[in-house]
UniProtKB/TrEMBL annotation:
InterPro entries referenced in this protein's UniProt entry, alphabetically: Ankyrin_rpt, Ankyrin_rpt-contain_sf, Multifunctional_regulatory
Tagged with keyword Repeat: yes
Superkingdom, natural source: Eukaryota
Annotated source species: Artemia franciscana
PANTHER family assigned to the protein according to its UniProt record, in alphabetical order: ANKYRIN REPEAT AND SOCS BOX-CONTAINING 15B, MYOTROPHIN
Protein name, per record: Ankyrin repeat domain-containing protein 49
Gene3D superfamilies in UniProt: Ankyrin repeat-containing domain
Keywords attached to this entry: ANK repeat, Repeat
Length: 204
């Protein structure tokens, strides 16, 4: 069974960051000062869209540059819920299906951090709601394990959401919701059209 403890760096499959409060190095452990690719990743983490626009204007070929763990600027923007940055990157051909070394897409990253705005936008742009990580987890598995209710609602409401998918531990996202949260009632949303239900319309 996939499990998590209080330290996401050690326990969560594919997470790109360590504890925000305790890690002064951010989410780019192999950062190289002056390298445009790493500058792009750093500015995406900061949500500095102006700087990102300047970097991409000068170096459009690095839009999908990855750090040592396989994370792109889009992963980093989405996990921080920087919607303006995510939109700019996608409109400039960032790969919404890019995978980290652990098989996480930007949607996995957004799902883990409950970045609802970016989850919505990624799905509207065609991100695969059922994409599987190295451990077989979909973004919904990730949101369920991390107890991210609002993100789970958005993905369960998507018409392509497949609740029958199991991860490598044999768990569906519904299994994880039932075991780890009080939100297992949300699984009925998988039978409803995308965006028919709003977050505020569901049971608290």
């Amino acid at each position: 069974m996939e499990q998590m403890d209080q330290n996401p760096q050690r326990s969560i499959e594919g997470v790109a960051v360590s504890d925000w409060e305790d890690d002064n190095t951010g989410i780019i452990p192999d950062y190289q000062e002056g390298h445009p690719g790493y500058e792009l990743l750093s500015k995406a983490e900061d949500g500095n869209c102006g700087a990102i626009k300047a970097i991409i204007k000068a170096h459009p070929e690095i839009i999908n540059f990855k750090d040592g763990d396989g994370y792109t600027a889009l992963h980093k923007a989405c996990q921080c819920n920087f919607l303006e940055v995510a939109k700019f990157l996608i409109y400039n051909r960032a790969d919404i299906s890019a995978k980290s070394e652990e098989g996480w897409t930007p949607l996995h990253s957004a799902a883990h951090w409950d970045a609802v705005d970016c989850v919505n936008f990624l799905l509207q742009c065609g991100a695969d709601v059922n994409s599987k990580s190295v451990g077989g987890s979909t973004p919904l598995h990730v949101a369920s394990r991390s107890q991210k209710r609002d993100t789970a609602i958005v993905m369960l409401s998507h018409p392509s959401c497949d609740l029958s998918i199991t991860n490598d531990a044999g768990d569906t996202a519904g299994d994880i919701l039932r075991r780890n949260t009080k939100h297992d009632y949300l699984t009925h949303l998988a039978e409803k059209p995308f965006n028919v239900l709003k977050v505020e319309d569901t049971v608290p």
